[in-house]
Amino acid sequence: ARSSSVLLAVSPLLPLLLLLLLLGSAVDRASSSPDADYVPSLPGYGPPPTRQWSGYLDATEGCDTSINGEYCKIHYWFAEAEGGNDADARDADLASEKPVVLWLNGGPGSSSVLGFLQELGPLLMNATGGFMKNPWSWTNEAHVLVIESPVGVGYSYCAAQVDGGKCHNTDKYTASSARAALVDFFTTKFPELSDNEFFITGESYAGVYIPTLSKEILDHASSSDVVNLRGIAVGDPCTDNDAQADSMDSLWYGHKYGLVPDQAFDLLWHECKMRSPSVMARGGPHAFKAEVTERVEAELGEEWSDLDRDDEETRDEIRTIHRETLFHPGPHFVDSTECKLARRKFLLQTSKGLSQGWDDMYIDDYSLFGPGGYGKEDDDMARWMMRPDVRRALHVEDCPSKQWPIPENGFKYKKEYDACNWNEVPAGAPSMIDFYREIAPKLDVSFVYNGDTDPCVSYEGTRTAISRVDFPELDGGGYRPWFYNHTAAPPSVLAEKSPMFGPDLLTSSTGAQFGGEVVNYEHGLSFLTVHGSGHMVPQFRPQAALHMLGKLLRKEGLLSPLLPKNETLAEMGAKEFSKVMDEWTEKAKGPPYVVGAAEEEEEAEAAKPVRGGATEVGGKQSVY
Fold first, then answer.
1. Which of 403, 409, 410, 411 lies closest to 385, judged by CA?
2. Is the pLDDT of residue 517 over 50?
3. pLDDT band at 306 (very low <50, low <70, confident <90, very high)
């Protein structure tokens, strides 16, 4: 106080100057979103539903510049939360109270823009290759940020790529580069959001990206470049090779879902010692492609890429190597006539072992119940993303690659952890189980979820992996159902949407519906299944995914009420248990666990026509 009095006495104009400085600082903070990155219009659509920005974040500090060159740039795309400003109000303040959610796709090599434009963003690719508004966009709950990570994926690039080389990444450098990009986002691009709660979400190999990036952020929590990380949601994830070994095997999965008869499974699994790990277990499509390339180079010579690709003999050799690599029955396969016959029948019965690369694929390898062989969405996206006017609109013209999502000369990736790399695990490498033990106690909430029909990463292995974190279950937090409010989809959305998006969407509301199972552990860790969903939960179950996101952001790990204690359940009489089960289920379907469902059910009941010829049986109407 004394110092202030002296200063005011020295300069009577100082209060005015201080006020002007404070006002100037506030104006700078409110309008600090990057004008050069603003996206006023998207080619083929027009102004987006909410304001969006796209451009580059500086990831150099976390990148391996010894091999990637002097700089690394990560492409970001950011959409403002709903309920903010006019889409045209470029300079208006952001809705600063909303959390920021980062979404990451996996691969390695899968662009997060795929998730943004096919799963959860405000605009989605429709059935004709255009765009439609997404009623269940995650921007309903938060600001949404996607980054194309690591460098060399999508329009993210490194200095070496400019000179015709490849970007090189490892699991560790991917995490440190992503953290450097996030620091740039919150300090340079959008400092007005630096105090907002931040959550990381994603799927597939993001099962490695998210825990490792979270640890990288938490390890720097005492520095000045703080990212306000509060929670994570990790979907259908690469987690632990041992826990997920069987459940990521297409023979095991095919038998579970009735594609392979018991006798054939017993023969192949136990006597023939056949194993058919999914492409995801091998590290994803891009890692598998690298494996094939290495074999081709070894057998045809490093100059194979200079050979005439139209030469039928060369193409046949490459096809043979690809086929042998993809469908190899494992190192311990018994090569008997009986086993070879059973294996060939297995391939016929299971769409070539749930292949991700077979032209005649008839079972969708990501959803099981989706239309087989439907790849139009990816092709439409790639064509749109590579258009010159789209590159200009997204401010990515500086990227040396004109091909998307993988550059013309590819990229290099080295895996360092014991997850989704069954054939190249470094000795003593930790899995994500070890990371969860360290990061979950430092976060407010951690969700690990899995679609319960995912052929790629089946839920059993993920559930086992999370149980091996060895956190105690909450008292009453054991495996139990959770519900969400299933609302009517606009008919225009059903007519326009891609066949892969929201196969459960209906024109009528059905109220509180079974969403899956949940188990809660100490330290805010929860494992959830998502009923009926395949690999990409926000795409296949958009309403359930948005419900789950809301719970994450509000840090409500209890998606349904806790169960009575085990001894209480065991000692109940049959009548008492029946009453408790009814009451528990009704409670789980209502607020605060499910909001809005009861009101919609009442409206639907009131609107039902009165029908004759019916009698009530067990509390329901039975028509006879």
1. 403
2. yes
3. very low
Cβ contacts of 47 within 8 Å, gap of 6 or more: 40, 41, 87, 88
Residue, of 307 and 86, whose pLDDT is higher:
86
So where are the chain's domains?
A: 35-239+412-553, 248-366, 566-623
Q: What is the mean pLDDT of residues 80-86?
A: 78
- Choose among 272, 232, 249: nearest CA to 555: 232
Q: How many Å apart are CA 218 and CA 443, to the nearest integer?
A: 9
In angstroms, what CA-CA distances link 157 with 117, 225, 395, 457?
Answer: 21, 23, 14, 29
Contact 341, 430 (CB under 8 A): no
Contacts of 245-248 with C-beta under 8 Å, sequence gap 24+, read 245/277, 245/281, 245/422, 245/461, 246/460, 246/461, 247/457, 247/458, 247/459, 247/460, 247/461, 247/462, 247/464, 248/277, 248/278, 248/280, 248/281, 248/420, 248/456, 248/457, 248/458, 248/461
Whole-angstrom distance between the N-terminal and C-terminal Cα of the chain?
A: 86
Tokens representing residue 223 in the block: 């520095």
Query: Cis peptide leading into 592, omega within 30 of 0?
Result: yes
Neighbours of 9 (CB within 10 A): 9
Instruction: Give helix then strand counts, H and E, for the chain.
Output: 24, 17
Residues 174-194, mean pLDDT to the nearest whole number: 97
Q: Which helix (H) or strand (E) holds 5?
A: helix 2-10
Answer for the pair 229, 200: CB distance below 8 angstroms, yes or no.
yes
User: Would the pLDDT of 205 be above 50?
Assistant: yes
Locus of tokens 């330290």: 523
Q: Which two tokens stand for residue 487?
A: 């609302």
Higher confidence at residue 80 or residue 305?
A: 80
Predicted confidence (pLDDT) per residue in 479-509, tens digit: 999 999 999 999 999 999 999 999 999 999 9
161 φ, ψ (degrees, to nearest 5)? -65, -35
13: pLDDT strictly greater than 90: no
Question: Which amino acid type is present at position 39?
Answer: V
CA 271, CA 265: separation in Å to the nearest integer? 10
Cα-based distances in Å from 340 to 11, 265, 271, 326 = 93, 13, 12, 16
Q: What pLDDT does residue 22 have?
A: 45
Strand residues in 418-550 grouped as ranges (E): 445-451, 480-486, 511-520, 525-530
Contacts of 337 (CB under 8 A, 6+ apart): none
- Distance, in Å, from the CA atom of 209 to the CA atom of 206, rounded to the nearest integer, reads 4
Stated pTM of the model? 0.85
Q: Tell me the two tokens of residue 590.
A: 């209502």
Tokens of 587: 């409670």
Is 35-239+412-553 CATH 3.40.50.1820? yes
Minimum mean pLDDT among 145-149, 312-316, 337-341, 595-599: which range? 312-316
Q: Which of 76, 84, 96, 87 is nearest to 51 (CA)?
A: 87
Query: CA dist 531 to 112, 459, 528, 535, Å?
Result: 24, 11, 10, 12
